[in-house]
Amino acid sequence: MKDAKEIMEILAAYDLTKPFRATAELTGCSHHTVARIVKARDAGADSDQSATREGAHRCVTAQDRGMG
């Protein structure tokens, strides 16, 4: 997970270069990471807020598994 300083550096590099891959090369991370951070910013998420998958922490019950 990137800290706030790293995220700000990635966003600043992206604003200068635009392509995810160019930003990734400059900042030493994956272009997938760059894309996730930029998309979170564009969606209005806080820069220090981690992106989680929807429902990732949902409790799975026996009924969900077809056992009940």
From TrEMBL:
Spans annotated as Disordered: 42-68
Protein name: Helix-turn-helix domain-containing protein
